[in-house]
Design brief:
By secondary structure, the protein is of the alpha/beta class. It has a single domain, classed as Ribosome hibernation promotion factor-like (Double Stranded RNA Binding Domain, 2-Layer Sandwich), CATH 3.30.160.100. Helix content is 32%, strand content 29%. It has three helices and six strands, in the order E-E-E-H-E-E-E-H-H. It has a six-stranded mixed β-sheet. Helix 1 runs parallel beside helix 2. The termini are far apart.
């Protein structure tokens, strides 16, 4: 479910896509806040495009327990866009930010950082560090 907020806390304006079950990944509740943004369509389009990979990474989690909160801001004096993401999971919370000169670049940076954090978080939960194969010792020849 993708909801859009106008910046006032806790108020959702509309849902962008109805909840549906797909085999590609988990559904999650998504809210977006905007600050100093004229048009919301480019941001919503990029978020919807990049949301698919997150869904595939988060298949193991129950859809009602996964929440993604995004905050998009344009600096009033600079030509710079900030996009911050906060992902709430049952096993922890992850946060990522992306800064760019245009909308797709800032969204891309934030989602790339969040995907990397999700992969590291899941590796920690699987305790991959304990299963890593130790390097064999070199035998001393006398």
């Amino acid at each position: 479910m993708l909801g859009v907020s106008d910046g006032s806390p806790g108020r959702i304006l509309r849902h962008l896509s109805p909840p549906h079950s797909d085999d590609n990944g988990a559904l999650m509740k998504i809210t977006l806040n905007y600050k100093h943004v004229e048009s919301r369509q480019p941001v919503e389009k990029e978020v919807a495009r990049r949301n698919g990979k997150l869904g595939r990474l988060l298949k193991a989690y129950s859809p009602d327990l996964v929440r993604l909160h995004g905050s998009f801001e344009k600096h009033p004096r600079k030509e710079q866009f900030d996009f911050s993401l906060h992902l709430s999971l049952p096993t922890g919370a992850l946060q990522a930010t992306g800064v760019g000169t245009n909308i797709p670049l800032s969204v891309k940076h934030a989602f790339a950082e969040l995907e990397d954090q999700i992969k590291r978080h899941q590796a920690r939960l699987r305790k991959d560090y304990e299963w890593k194969r130790k390097r064999p010792r070199a035998r001393a020849t006398a």
